[in-house]
């Protein structure tokens, strides 16, 4: 096995895992605290990518565009919370799913109207566009390292916020008993809105980070949202720790499965059989893992303690 | 007869009469629209069994629709282009039988896992399993992968020529009526009572000694198999079968048809699919941005219209 290729694939898997964590953490935060299922979370991811791509073209500076696009997606989250989520908190999950399904159509079409049907490429500044040569054969694009760094930083920041700040304390309290928090005089509506905006900004950040690699395109959120669902199901819905571990797991398994499953299969079956079955199995791998996890632990690997 | 029975009979009579009249008066397009509507209505009726009566929010029903269509497409593909002789056929009984068997099996295996979970887990898992089938089909290049599968031949059934659009519609319509009656019979049987009882209060049914898990699994399999049958019809209708058919947006649309029409009613899913298809067609002609008003309408229906169209027809009673 080629070691440098493995290192590159490992880093790709890590990068996918961290992006998944950014999307899944918002999803799990909103569900854990607000008990709201937001299918349109992927649309916010797409919105982040488009706003950032457009700002990069206008301003000519990717980092500045990210800084400006973050509050934009947070505000979009606030609007969604105010006009769609809030009237539906008391309803069942089916209504959440249907309304946010409609919202996906609305956001997708609005983006189409404003930014046009084509995807927007995001040019990177020079210092991010280079490559880092680790060894003779091992070359890593520096932007991918930045994604990994940003993902880890966001995870650390979230962990610090949830465990060490007053806001985090309220979030944890709200997740385990929202009536009690409200009775203690906390403005629960504002807390909910804040959590929603935070989730939207996290999804938007993931979109902004991936845009320079894949470009911003309509419907990009609809693929990642399902994988993010798999992540939070495997991790345990509502659990931040579960989302982090499951996201890295799913990211690595998906990436490495696509590159190495055929080699693995060749050990136990014929060349032909391995080459035909490996792509099919690797496409289904994360779902098979999800099924196995659920069959053993229906609440996921790290279910939150009290609900 | 009650008012609802009259409404149901009227709607079904209109659905039987109008499309052929359109066809004979030179508007063949509307017959096609009606055939699509009728086939999707069968899928919606099957979803209503578990979603409406069973309270199981399955977000993966389009997978059964797609699998059913591929059960027609793959044998036809081999019949046309060779390979896999054992599978190559255009015999309608074999194709439709395959569609029903495969979707029943798929529903059995995934249902066994999904039904161990509740609430939002169930929604997401059914969705994820459907996406798994989607990616599986996309990864098989022999059957067109992303691009889908074009089959220039329809199922052969004795006494039917499905190349005749009128006969295809007739088959779809009769199937719809039969499926509605079957689901109605199931719902009113002891089995259906347990299913509905578990929707209202699962703990009570368990305490009464019913194996709720098993009842739900059986309903899930029946629903999947009916939807697979609808998929087989859809494959015959489009003669172009693509993974797009099982995209999760299609599952969302099927759910919407049920809710829009009125869940847990006999006619609701049919009304819902009719309203859905007609609106889609109408708005689609007005503007390429038709998803915007359509999406807003979906949100509006959830926020403000409880009980769907059937609720409105009942006049707010119940």
TrEMBL record, chain A:
InterPro entries in the cross-refs = ABC_transp_permease, BCAA_transport_permease
Which terms in the GO cellular component ontology are assigned? plasma membrane
List the GO molecular function terms.
transmembrane transporter activity
Primary place of residence?
A: membrane
Describe its membrane topology.
Answer: Multi-pass membrane protein
- Entry similarity comment: Belongs to the binding-protein-dependent transport system permease family. LivHM subfamily.
- Protein name per Swiss-Prot or TrEMBL: Amino acid/amide ABC transporter membrane protein 1 (HAAT family)
UniProtKB/TrEMBL annotation, chain B:
Location of the protein in the cell:
Cell membrane
Report the domain of life of the source organism. Bacteria
Which CDD domains does the entry link to?
Answer: TM_PBP1_LivM_like
In the bilayer, the protein is annotated as: Multi-pass membrane protein
**Keyword terms:** Cell membrane, Membrane, Transmembrane, Transmembrane helix
What Gene Ontology molecular-function terms does this entry list? branched-chain amino acid transmembrane transporter activity
> Which residues are listed as membrane-spanning?
33-51, 63-81, 93-113, 120-137, 166-187, 213-234, 254-279, 286-305
Transport among the record's keywords?
A: no
Asked whether the UniProt record includes Ion transport among its keywords, one would answer no
GO CC terms for this protein? plasma membrane
Name recorded for this polypeptide: Amino acid/amide ABC transporter membrane protein 2 (HAAT family)
């Amino acid at each position: 096995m080629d070691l440098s290729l493995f290192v590159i694939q490992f880093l790709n898997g890590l990068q996918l895992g961290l992006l998944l964590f950014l999307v899944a953490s918002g999803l799990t935060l909103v569900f854990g605290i607000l008990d709201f299922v937001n299918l349109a979370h992927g649309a916010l991811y797409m919105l982040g990518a488009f706003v950032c791509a457009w700002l990069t073209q206008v301003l000519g500076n990717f980092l500045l565009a990210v800084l400006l696009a973050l509050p934009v997606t947070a505000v979009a989250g606030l609007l969604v919370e105010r006009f769609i989520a809030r009237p539906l908190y008391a309803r069942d999950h089916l209504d959440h799913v249907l309304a946010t399904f409609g919202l996906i159509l609305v956001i997708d079409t609005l983006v189409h109207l404003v930014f046009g049907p084509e995807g927007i490429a995001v040019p990177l500044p020079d210092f991010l566009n280079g490559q880092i040569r680790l060894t003779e054969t091992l070359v890593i694009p520096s932007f991918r390292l930045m994604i990994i760094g940003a993902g880890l930083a966001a995870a650390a920041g979230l962990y610090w916020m949830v465990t060490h700040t007053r806001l985090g304390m309220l979030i944890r309290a709200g997740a385990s008993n929202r009536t009690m928090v409200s009775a203690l005089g906390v403005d629960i509506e504002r807390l909910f809105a804040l959590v929603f905006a935070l989730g939207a900004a996290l999804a938007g950040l993931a979109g902004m980070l991936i845009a320079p690699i894949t470009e911003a395109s309509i419907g990009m959120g609809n693929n990642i949202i399902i994988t993010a669902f798999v992540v939070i199901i495997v991790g345990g819905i509502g659990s931040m720790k579960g989302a982090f571990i499951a996201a890295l797991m799913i990211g690595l398994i998906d990436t490495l499965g696509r590159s190495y499953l055929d080699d693995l299969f060749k050990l136990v079956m014929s060349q032909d059989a391995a080459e035909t079955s490996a792509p099919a199995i690797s496409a289904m791998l994360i779902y098979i893992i999800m099924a196995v996890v659920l069959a053993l632990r229906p609440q996921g690997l790290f279910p939150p303690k009290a609900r | 007869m009650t008012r609802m029975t009259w409404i149901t009979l009227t709607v079904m009579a209109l659905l039987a009469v109008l499309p052929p009249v359109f066809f004979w008066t030179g508007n063949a397009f509307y017959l096609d629209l009606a055939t699509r509507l009728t086939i999707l209505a069968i899928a919606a009726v099957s979803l209503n069994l578990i979603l409406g009566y069973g309270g199981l929010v399955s977000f993966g029903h389009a997978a059964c629709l797609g699998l059913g269509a591929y059960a027609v497409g793959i044998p036809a593909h081999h019949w046309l282009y060779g390979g896999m002789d054992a599978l190559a056929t255009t015999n309608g009984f074999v194709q439709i039988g395959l569609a029903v068997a495969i979707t029943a099996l798929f529903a059995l295996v995934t249902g066994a896992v999904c039904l161990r979970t509740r609430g939002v887990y169930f929604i997401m898992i059914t969705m994820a399993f459907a996406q798994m089938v989607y990616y599986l089909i996309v990864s098989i290049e022999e059957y067109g992968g992303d691009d889908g599968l074009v089959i220039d031949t329809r199922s052969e059934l004795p006494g039917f020529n499905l190349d005749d659009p009128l006969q295809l519609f007739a088959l779809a319509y009769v199937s719809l009526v039969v499926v509605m009656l079957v689901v109605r019979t199931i719902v009113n049987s002891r089995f259906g009572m347990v299913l509905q009882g578990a929707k209202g209060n699962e703990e009570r049914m368990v305490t009464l000694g019913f194996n709720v898990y098993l009842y739900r699994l059986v309903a899930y399999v029946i629903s999947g198999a009916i939807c697979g049958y609808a998929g087989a019809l859809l494959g015959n209708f489009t003669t172009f079968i693509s993974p797009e058919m099982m995209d999760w947006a299609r599952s969302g649309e099927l759910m919407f048809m049920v809710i829009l029409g009125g869940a847990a009613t006999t006619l609701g899913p049919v009304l819902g699919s009719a309203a859905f298809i007609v609106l889609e067609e109408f708005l689609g002609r007005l503007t390429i941005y038709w998803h915007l008003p359509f999406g807003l309408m979906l949100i509006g229906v959830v926020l403000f219209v409880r009980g769907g169209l059937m609720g409105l027809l009942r006049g707010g009673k119940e």
